[in-house]
Structures are given as structure tokens and as C-alpha cells.
Amino acid sequence: MIRRSFNEDWQMRPKVNPFAELSGQAVPYTAVTLPHDAMIGLQRDKESGGEAGANAYFPGGAFEYRKNFFVPADHRGRHILVEFEGVYRDATVYVNGAYAGQRPYGYSRFHVDIAPFLRFGQDNEIRVEARAHRDARWYTGAGIYRDTWMLVGGPVRIAADGVRITTPDIDADLATVDVASTVENKSCETRTLSLATEIRDADGTTVAHADSPVTVLPGESAVVRARHYVESPLLWGPDTPHLYTAHVSLTDEEGGLDSETATFGIRSLRLDPRRGLRLNGEPVKLRGTCVHHDNGVLGAATFASAEERRVRILKEAGFNAIRMSHYPMSVAMLDACDRLGMLVMDETFDVWTSAKSPFDYSLDFPEWWERDVEAMVAKDFNHPSVVMYSIGNEIPETGSPAGAVWGRRLAEKVRSLDPTRYVTNAVNGMLAVMDDLASLRKQAAEGAGINTLMATDPGDMMNAVSTSELVTRRTAESFGVLDVAGINYAEDRYGLDRELFPDRIIVGTETFPTRIDRNWQLVTEHPHVVGDFTWTGWDYLGEVGVGRAQYITEENPRPAFVAPYPHLVAGCGDIDITGHRRPASYYREIVFGLRDRPYIAVQRPEHHGKTFAGTPWAWSDALPSWTWPGFDGAPVVVEVYSDADEVELLLNGRSLGRRPVGKGHRFRTAFDATYEPGELTAVAYREGRESGRCAVRTAEGPLCLQTEIDRPTLSATAGELAYVTFTLTDAHGTPHSAADRPLCVEVSGDGVLQAFGSADPSTEERFDTAERRTFEGRALAVLRPTGPGKIRLVATAPECEPVEVLVTVE
């Protein structure tokens, strides 16, 4: 089917009661371009209670979008669909005032057949309603937040999602590529057609070709299977993400009827408890991260450039796998994972039949789950990056027979749709037996009672509960229906299950970032454990403050999970919402064995002597900075991360001593120092010889505003963005993290300011204004082109020279 972008020329407004419009339009529409997040521009509600912190204190609401579009008269009799990649939530679609379709789940791609409601040769109106209200545990956004497309096909056509590709047999000399194409015949006569398939490599060279005749009866469909053989195949993998394309064309004696193109990779998957997960015959451990769908300053709006930027930065930080949490991944991110070589665990749902929020998807799950599973698999099928499907996250029912029945249904449904990938479920053992926690309190865990653990470290408490005999027994059937047992926050089960269930294969579907050193050791030591997915690699809006730094006081004797307004972000990402790597990211890179140089992070001197009390998702409150004005002569703690034997710390050339580091010391050490401006250097030693060094310096002299643009040239196509990073520095380029000030931007020419913000975790500032205060010396502007030409951005800040950025749009 012919596919065209349907993103332009929409209007949006809050949903209006029709009775309120009897006296005239009560609320005007605003012109928008999709993708669009209707929630990110709303005023946050500081009067909301703690539950609203899940959604970052953004209010819910109902929203309606409309678009006028012309349909040519010659389209009469054609099959016309509108594809929505994501509408949050409870989408209802009307065409020329008539109901045309709906989709309750906010993360499913869906199609609406609009042909029966169209006026051909005239203008038409499509209207979409969406709503969000206390229906999730994170920031959801609202509205038509992913791409839309119009699909047009004749009576005889290749079905939407009708080309599916598998690579069942692969060796160094030859790969078998099976292309299954579904042809639909909605005409009133039998048609005999020809379907041709070409396989092309990345250079566009045809490497295999097949022609197949196909006869399709009226009102029926037929699947045409073409088996191709590609010589000397270039295999897809994280380090070699080679892609091919299949071009499928449908013709009859009069000429072409339809065509489709699908991108795919040639790769094989194998799985067993003794060799773990093998990709193209080679064992691979998943250095994984969980991510939410929001794009920070953009809110939930899913632009292709934003998704690719996230994947690229995550891969540069050492990750090779992403778990989309806790819903299906966008098409744009899947495409980026294919191109860049990132493995994917795609997930279906956060709830089944038991609600976690008052108005969540559990209300619709029994009726809609099959269609939503089908939508996810259809979206993912040709993407080589996808290696595993997760059928749920922390589902309370998994500890019951009824929940195991549901798990079996979902797992078998996935397998019936795609037998080439593996099925997991992210099980939280403590949640699975939540109704029995009272009895567990009476039991003693090894080394400490459950009551003691529940009052201290929640990570230890989760492990103690999850390794209990009760959890082992209650989750056995739910784990038994899976190919891979997904385990959340219970790494103590890894060794236990090797004894209890020798054939059980495990993946840490969600783990504490503060425990990556121990977890990664378990992953590398146990062949039946195929990887670790930290919570989380990229910070996100909502679940505010779960990873923030906290300190013990009389008023706050223990860490709280949710932070009060105006907290905005979770604060537990290795990478902040602007794409800047935090110290935890470099620590993880060292643990993974991907960085041989040490790394310095300095704890904020204003908190010296206080007792840190963050949750297990919270990293220490440290910065890679040696610029602390006002603290001359003050005591300060310097953290150094390294996999070497020892590190020496030098302050302005003076040694502050050597300390052991490396694996036996959790890859970290700390030095007590007294702050004085200058240079702080960490020198690593292996077997007595220097193996690497890292230095931080004090920013001095006049401030400068430095800019860096990720893409100076853009195309004027949908999904394109340019990211401009601002950093306050001294004249030598040393970042100044303690000189924050308001920053103003002015954008002109052939583009607009799509968003502007910082990583400030607690602020009332908005992302849709042209002035923001920097945070730790940094801010981020996102530009969206409106057509070919030039985009000009001018930025000004007090005591800094103005800077100008030019972006070419081709």
C-alpha cells in the first residue's frame, strides 16, 4: 500500500462538552504538527497529592485533534487506512462526524479503515479524541504523540504489515531468507497475479530475486512464500549492524498494482542454560538498560531524530540492549536500534487484570490484550534488533494459578505469531506474594529478620522475600511458561535457581543501578544468566525523586520514595533527560570492562558530614567538577572509579595518597580532601605501573557560553530535529557547574524551537518557553525544521557573549 505521512495540518484543543458550545466555540483550536504531546505544555498542579508525583504533577485531561484533508475522486473503491503509531489514551476516531474506530491502549499501533466514511472529490475531516487520567505509574503524555500515516491501496494489494521475513538457515557461505507476503483481493473476481521479490544489500545491489504466480479468490487473501539464498551474507549484530531490504512488487498483465519494502537483518538466535544466549553462534551477554518512552524536554512526543539520539548515546555509554518499559517500543526507536546495533526486549503491558492505578489498562485488558499483542508482534517482526518479547512487568497475578493461566495464554499467543524469538516476563517475586507478606514477616531471613530488612534496605528486603520458599513455589508455573525467566530486583535467585531449576534461563529484567558491580559479576559467572537491565539508563519524567539524593535528618529519618512538588524527574538515570552522562554511567562502563581510565566524581561539599540515605536507585550526589566557589578550605570527599589495582589522587601536584580499587573494592574508592582551586588528578596503577589518568580543573576567569550541535544539516522530512547543547565554561573550555544563570534563545528562519530545558530535577520552569535557567552549567534546545532553508538560533546569558548557531535544512 502507498504510505504517506499524515502528520501535517492538525489542530488540537482540550475536549469541550458539546453543550458548552451551543452558544459558540468555547475553546479555540491550536495548530500543531505531529507527533504532539498535549500534556507537556500544561501547567503542573502543585496542589496535587503524592500520587500525582507518578505523572510529575502534570494534570490529566481529555483532548481532541482534528484535521481537514482532501480525497481525490479517483480514490473511490480503494482501501484507505489511517495508521496511528501511538495515541495516549482511549483513542476514539471519527471521520466526517461518524465513529470509525478506537483503541484503549495508549502504546499500540493501530489502523482505522476510513474509506466507508469519506466524501470523494471533497474535503474531509478526521477527529481524534484522547484522554489521560490517573492511569499509569510514570509520565505518559497525552494525545497523538507518535507518527501518523495514510495508507492507500487498490482492491488487490499487499496487506498492511503483509511482508514478514525470517532467516532460518545461516552459515558463512549462504543464508536462507524466507519472505512471506500476504496478498488481499477485495474485488469481485478471481485474480491471478505475479509477485516479485528482490533482496538488496546496503549498497542497493540485488543479491537474490524470485517471481511467484499467485491466484487469489474474491474476498480472500493468499500468502506467497519466496525462499531466497544470499551468498556470503553480512550478519547483523551489535558490532556489525548490517541490513538488507526486501522489495516486493505485485503486478498483473496490465502492470503494477502494489509494492512494499521491508528492512531486515540476517542473524540467528540460540538459547540454552549452559551457553546462554548466542547471536550468530557467539555468546552474548546483555548489557541492558530499561527506558521509558518520554524524550525529556520533548515530553512524550516521539520524533525519529530523538529516538536515534537516545539509542546512540546509550550505546556510546556501553549498553548493548534496551528493554522498553513497560509497553511496546516506537517504530522510530526500533529503526534506530536496527541501524546502530542495539538489542531489544520489547514489552507488552504493565498490568493484566489487577490494577496498579485507578484507571489503568486493567479495565480494558480482558477484551483487548490479544489485539494489542498482535499489534506489537506485527510491528516488531522484521526488526533484527528484537530478540525477546516480555509479556508483562511486575504483574501481581504471577504468584497465583489464575495468573499463570494468563501468562500461558500470552506466551502462547506470542509464539503463535512469532516462533523465532524468546518470551520472558519481568516477575517481581515480592509483588507476586504481596498478600502473604504478613506471614513472611514472621520468618527469619538469613542474617536478618524480614521486619528488620523491611525497615532498612529495600533491596535486601526484596531479595529476602524473593528467595523464600513461598516465592519459589508460587511463581514456578508462571516461570515455567517462559523461555527466559525475567527477574526484577532479586539477583540472589540467580545462584539459587541454578540448583533448584537447572534448565531455567534467567535475565535480570530490572535491577538496582547501585548494585551493577555485583550483578554483572553474577551475569558473567553464570552461563544461565543472559544479562542485566538496570533501572534505568536514561532518566525520565515522573516517579519523581525515586533516585534523588537524600540525607538523614530528624524530620526525615529514612528515604522517601516520592518527592514533593516541584520535583519533575525520577533522578535515577545513568544519563539525564538532556542526554548528559552522569557519574554512574562512567562507573558502569568501568564495571562492564569498557573503560580503562579512572573517573573522578566529587561529592558536593555542602553535604559533607551528612548521612546519605538515598533509595537503592540513587547514586551518590557527586559531580565531575573541581569548581566549588565559597568552599575554599572546606572538607570534601572525592570518589574515584577504576578497575586498576590502585589509584593515587594528586591535588595541584601533591599526592593525597594511594588507595586500593578494582573488582575487590567494588571498582571504587574515596579520598578525604580539602578544597582548593586548581587541578585534581587520579592516576591508576596496574602491577605498579601507571595505566591511565583522569583530571578535573577549576573553572577560572570570565564565563563563556559554549554551544555544540549534534546535526548542523537536516532534511526537511518528518521526524528531523537538531539538538543544541549549551555549556557555561571558562576561556579554556573547563565547564563551570556552579555559575547557573538564565539563558535566552531566539529562533528565526525555517524552523521553530520545539523544546528548551535543562536536567534540573526540581523546577517550575517549562519546556515550551524561550528562557530557562541552566543546571550544573548546562541547558539544551531542540530545533525542528519547517521547510528547506536555514534555521538561526541566537543565545544570550548574563556576563556571556551572545552565541549564534546556524542549521541548514535541505
TrEMBL record:
Q: Which GO terms describe its molecular function?
A: hydrolase activity
InterPro entries, alphabetized: Beta-gal/glucu_dom_sf (IPR036156), DUF4982 (IPR032311), Galactose-bd-like_sf (IPR008979), GH (IPR017853), GH2_Domain-Containing (IPR051913), Glyco_hydro2_dom5 (IPR040605), Glyco_hydro_2 (IPR006101), Glyco_hydro_2_cat (IPR006103)
Q: Where is the Glycoside hydrolase family domain?
A: 705-805
Specify the superkingdom. Bacteria
Q: What would be one Pfam family of this protein?
A: Glyco_hydro_2
Alphabetical keyword list: Glycosidase, Hydrolase
Show where the Glycoside hydrolase family 2 immunoglobulin-like beta-sandwich domain sits.
163-267
Q: Which family does it belong to?
A: Belongs to the glycosyl hydrolase 2 family.
Q: What is this protein called?
A: Glycoside hydrolase family 2 TIM barrel-domain containing protein
Q: What is the lineage of its organism?
A: Bacteria, Bacillati, Actinomycetota, Actinomycetes, Kitasatosporales
